[in-house]
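Quick question, first post here. What does this chain look like in 3D?
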Amino acid sequence: MPEHVVRTYCTRVTAVGTVRRVARQPTKPRPVRMTDELWKAGLDTADAAGENLPDAIRDFVAWYARIPGSRPPRRPPVQPPA
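> Answer (accepted):
Ran it through. Tokens below.
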């Protein structure tokens, strides 16, 4: 039987994974305003790189705030225009 995949507000994961991941997170959801186009581009880029957009955002904020030991998030290689 195929797994059902849902698109949450931040990433694409299986329905069971979503429930388990949210229940164990010691963090609070934080609203960030951006256009739908920018959010979709971020999701698509993270998905293509096999990464998670919220993790990349947290990495960026830690680096931006100069938290010791933090590094900027990895950027995927540039894709040639289609």
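The helical segments are 15-24, 36-48, 53-64.
Residues 13 and 21 are 10 Å apart (CA to CA).
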